[in-house]
Design a protein that fits this description.
Length: about 375
């Protein structure tokens, strides 16, 4: 295995490793001898190993055994690698893993499965929800992925709604809001949260509930009232993202949002700048605030809003042209982000590269450097 260790280290450290390094990783995983390091990076590989999908699929069948029912660690590694590459041959194994509690428990690794079509992913997550019952990790990861599925998660709406009176209410509200009108049957319960008529209301729940109520009903009145009150009361960071989503409908709150662009908190400044642009359509006040948060030396620390600022600059588009040289310079770096643990480092860096690339494509079409 020592000959393959350099390949593992190369794909962990380098954004654009020699493709032969990924070849060595696949060899290490699909050989007879186990290689934990290679398995750890293969799960994160995504499209980088798409050309090896047939070999990985064959090895997955071998791992599943004669009757195709095994659900051990090796099955999970290979199924996740295929899922990350968007290969539908992962689905039977993922369903089996969901039935037997074998899917990832941490959100970054679970999000590998978002490479699959939303409808198929919803079916897997619905199995996971029903199997895990009240289990903490099973619910949080399943709800996180269902939120990414958007309206395609509608078949899971009833099961998600059952989580509204549990510790998973906040995540359930996000899913219901993303589903939208097909989840309209939950409108009264969401309104109860938003107006403190539900005994579990409090903390960030009213804002999320009011936003979800708007998304499922199309009526912004409650969201404007609850989220606007949060911005005026000083709990700004909990209301700003929802006002941003409301856009020009939140024009009455533009002035307090503008003031929060000078907040001492970096996340609040970032949210406020984006919300102000979404509400008013005026990029000039927002772009300098967002650009100031883009640290070219960012290591991946989640407590600073670097990636969020890049994403929002991309949404602003051409008026954020001042960001182009900095974003291109960051994207050209050879080293991956160093802060995340190795189990999620490639995932985190790929997400950042994708954010940078998409931002550049929207700000300066045709000039985004491909990674």
């Amino acid at each position: 295995m020592t000959g393959r260790d350099p390949a593992v280290q190369a794909v962990l450290r380098q954004r654009r490793p020699d493709p032969a390094c990924w070849d060595a990783v696949v060899d290490a995983v699909c050989s007879e001898g186990p290689s934990y390091g290679a398995e750890r990076v293969l799960v994160q590989a995504g499209p980088a190993v798409a050309r090896h999908a047939d070999r990985i699929a064959r090895d997955l069948r071998r791992q599943q055994g004669l009757f195709g029912t095994a659900v051990g660690h090796g099955v999970g590694v290979r199924a996740l690698a295929l899922a990350g590459a968007g290969d539908l041959r992962a689905l039977p194994a993922l369903h089996r893993l969901a039935e037997h509690g074998g899917l990832p428990f941490n959100r970054p690794e679970a999000r590998v499965m978002a490479g699959l079509p939303p409808a198929e992913l919803t079916a897997v997550m619905l199995t996971k929800l029903r199997r895990d019952g009240d289990g903490y990790h099973g619910n949080t990861t399943a709800l996180d992925l269902l939120a990414l599925c958007g309206v395609a998660a509608a078949p899971a709406a009833d099961d998600v709604a059952r989580r509204l009176n549990t510790q998973f209410a906040y995540d359930a509200m996000r899913v219901l809001g993303r589903i939208g009108p097909p989840a309209a049957a939950t409108a009264d319960r969401l309104a109860a949260y938003a107006t403190a008529r539900d005994h579990r209301s409090g903390g960030p729940y009213p804002r999320r509930a009011a936003w979800a109520h708007w998304k499922v009903t199309g009526d912004p009145t409650l969201a404007l009232d609850v989220c606007g009150a949060a911005v005026r009361s000083g709990t700004a960071s909990h209301g700003l993202p929802f006002l941003a989503d409301l856009g020009p409908q939140a024009a009455v709150h533009a002035a307090p949002v503008r003031r929060l662009m000078e907040s001492p908190g970096a996340w609040t400044r970032t949210y406020a700048a984006y919300a102000y642009w979404r509400i008013t359509g005026a990029p000039d006040p927002a772009v300098p605030v967002l650009l100031a948060e883009v640290d070219p030396a960012w290591t991946g620390r989640p407590d600073v809003p670097v990636q969020e600022a890049v994403r929002r600059l991309g949404e602003i588009g051409a008026p954020a042209a001042a960001a182009v040289p900095l974003l291109r310079r960051i994207l050209a770096r050879e080293e991956r982000l160093t802060q995340p643990w190795e189990n999620v480092r490639i995932l985190a860096d790929r997400a950042y590269v994708r954010t940078l690339t998409e931002a550049l494509a929207r700000i300066a079409p045709g000039r985004a450097q491909q990674s």
